[in-house]
């Protein structure tokens, strides 16, 4: 365990009034990790709040403590002893929670993104690592908090979602060790996997259809780009969270080595990218103001869809040429 993890543990022990922040457009790692840490800190007698700019997605709503997650406006003007960003790769991903983070008496973060610039006083960042949930699992051990079943469910969701249910390149030994500990704690793997990866509302199924219809194949079959406009969301009755997993249809297409899903919400376009080695989509994301991992990255741009799409295609093809 690294020194900053010990430093974070000390800060958590010393603080009484703690804010945990999940990133905008929350996924399973930020939700599961933040809620696992929340449960551990509550068991230590701490006053803990969890904030996120966006609501917890439906597929994570049954995790312990999910109902306590609030919009940052609920705590406007409050000064916390310690604010901890959980799985938040850069300050932009704090969203509307940034003001609460900046106002706190002390700041920390726990994360696994290679592009994280280290924006807190305590920067507990480890990369490469499959998921922030793995670090949170280590932190709980350091704090001496037993891994009970509700906490294990949170951590299992964190690591399972960030590894594509243990199928992606980043599935490492640490992820599997944590999963084994969660099973030993009594979780129902089959139930969690079905809820998170298999069940979907009709609106999401319709949205998937529109994304697949939009798919463009470039670079001799090695690059796939899908687009979802605001009209697509409206016609399907879909939410932003319903894009979860759609990118996998692109990267899992035979011959494709890099894939991007562009989703238009209001005046912004969100990009989600995946790649196979040796292609580095984090480099592409950073050129667009985003970041992430070499094989999984994202960005958000306030620009017309056509302009963003053209730029993304240009950058992905340049990344392809970089490797010959």
UniProtKB/TrEMBL annotation:
Domain DHHA1: 245-310
Residue intervals of the DDH domain: 18-156
InterPro entries recorded: DDH_dom, DHH_sf, DHHA1_dom, Oligoribo/pAp-PDE_c-di-AMP_PDE
Highest rank taxon of the organism: Bacteria
One Pfam family matching this protein: DHHA1
GO molecular function: nucleic acid binding
Protein name: DHH family phosphoesterase
Organism annotation: Candidatus Avichristensenella intestinipullorum
High-level lineage: Bacteria, Bacillati, Bacillota, Clostridia, Candidatus Avichristensenella
């Amino acid at each position: 365990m690294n020194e900053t993890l010990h430093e974070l543990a000390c800060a958590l022990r010393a603080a009484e009034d703690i804010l945990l922040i999940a990133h905008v457009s929350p996924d399973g790692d930020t939700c599961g990790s933040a809620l696992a840490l929340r449960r551990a800190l509550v068991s230590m007698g701490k006053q803990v709040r969890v904030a996120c700019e966006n609501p917890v997605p439906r597929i994570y709503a049954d995790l312990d403590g999910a109902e306590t997650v609030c919009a940052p406006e609920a705590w406007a003007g409050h000064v916390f002893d310690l604010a901890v960003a959980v799985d938040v790769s850069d300050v932009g991903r704090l969203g509307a929670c940034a003001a609460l983070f900046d106002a706190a008496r002390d700041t920390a973060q726990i994360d696994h993104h290679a592009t994280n610039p280290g924006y807190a006083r305590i920067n507990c960042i480890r990369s490469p690592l499959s998921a922030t949930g793995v670090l949170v699992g280590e932190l709980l051990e350091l704090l001496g908090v037993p891994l009970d079943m509700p906490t294990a469910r949170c951590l299992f969701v964190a690591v399972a979602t960030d590894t594509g249910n243990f199928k992606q390149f980043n599935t490492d030994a640490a992820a599997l060790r944590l999963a084994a500990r969660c099973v030993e704690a009594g979780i129902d793997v089959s139930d969690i996997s079905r809820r998170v990866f298999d069940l979907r509302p009709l609106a999401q199924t319709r949205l998937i259809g529109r994304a697949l219809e939009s798919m463009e194949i470039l670079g001799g079959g090695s690059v796939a780009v899908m687009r979802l406009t605001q009209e697509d969301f409206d016609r399907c009755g879909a939410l932003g969270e319903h894009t979860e997993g759609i990118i996998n249809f692109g990267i899992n297409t035979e011959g494709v080595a890099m894939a991007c899903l562009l989703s238009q919400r209001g005046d912004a376009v969100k990009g989600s990218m995946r790649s196979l080695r040796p292609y580095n989509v984090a480099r592409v994301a950073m050129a667009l103001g985003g970041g992430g991992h070499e094989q999984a990255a994202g960005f958000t741009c306030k620009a017309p869809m056509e302009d963003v799409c053209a730029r993304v295609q240009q950058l992905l093809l340049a990344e392809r040429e970089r490797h010959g």
